[in-house]
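INTERNAL TRANSFER SHEET
From: sequence group
To: structure group
Subject: Porin

Please process the attached sequence and return the structure record in the designated field. Keep the field labels unchanged so the import script can parse them.
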Amino acid sequence: MKSTKLVSLVSFAVVASVASNSILAASHGKDDDIELYGEIEVRSVNREAKDLDTFVDKARMGLKGAHVLNNMSGTKARWQIEYNLPVNSNALSSTDTGSVSLRKANVSLQGDFGEFIFGRQNNILADTKKIDTFKNDSGTFLFTPDRVGNAISYVTPTMGGFHGYIQLATDTQPTVDNDSEVDATIFGINYSDDTFYFGISRFDSDNEYPATELGVTSLGFSVSFGDFSVFGTYQDEEDDTQTYGLGVGLSMNDWTFKTGVNGFKSDNDGPASTIFKGSVVAPDGNDDEGNAVFFLAEYALGKGVSTFAQYVYYDDDAEDETFGGSAFSVGIAADISRTLM
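Return from structure group:
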């Protein structure tokens, strides 16, 4: 318990220190841009054959900034540090003493040459996961992590709406020595304009990251027609497993409505190597498949605060593969963003 409290205290001190230094840096000129941001979301989920569960799904706080470099003409340095705060570990206590975890910590150099990013950062492939836009259970069948650590990335300049990228994750398990200098490689190309996005990406890892060898090709798209939008994702894992998703959205004043289907099909009858975002499916020699259908309504209350209701339905095949069950949820969320000057 003492060590957990110490970790939380040290982590908070780091955030406070960075915030103080950032405020001082921001006062040195107009070229600096510092933002304090965060997110809180509370949900109540009534899942089939489960007790009603009310919990904090998100409690995050971060700082990010951009500074023009005096000694590197035409180049900006960007940085970001983001924490996941402890939630739900001791609901009957006056305080929550769970561990603080680090989501992102990175520094980048951006200029006419593109951008180099160093540290714990978003998996750029995640841009293709357009179906992962719902609340609880969103993207449950999708492959690959949403963030990567020990990473170095390069993103090309945008030309005619296109840009490419490559990410390398190295020594992801420092206590384990193996022959691979690079444990995971991610590369791809995206196109986007005001109404259309398309991306294709490839993820390859050895058996140290993430705990098994994995090769995934991921495609995603989104297109908007005024207040109406269509979005989708298709992923192919080289051991004969495919995931797919297709959804539509409609925005009306302060309301947003979305519905979509996310599913998977696997012909894999070899070793267990099919790792989804939320679960592991151990192939049993039979064809495995399943689908989930989502219905979501969100209402913007103003000032970054919103509320929502969602229903997700799992078919019998998905439940047979231990996914689900179907669930109705309601929640409220607040997005925090403040420029520090």
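Handover comment: The chain has one domain: 2-340. Confidence is low (pLDDT under 50) at residues 1-7, 22-29, 270-275.
Transfer complete.
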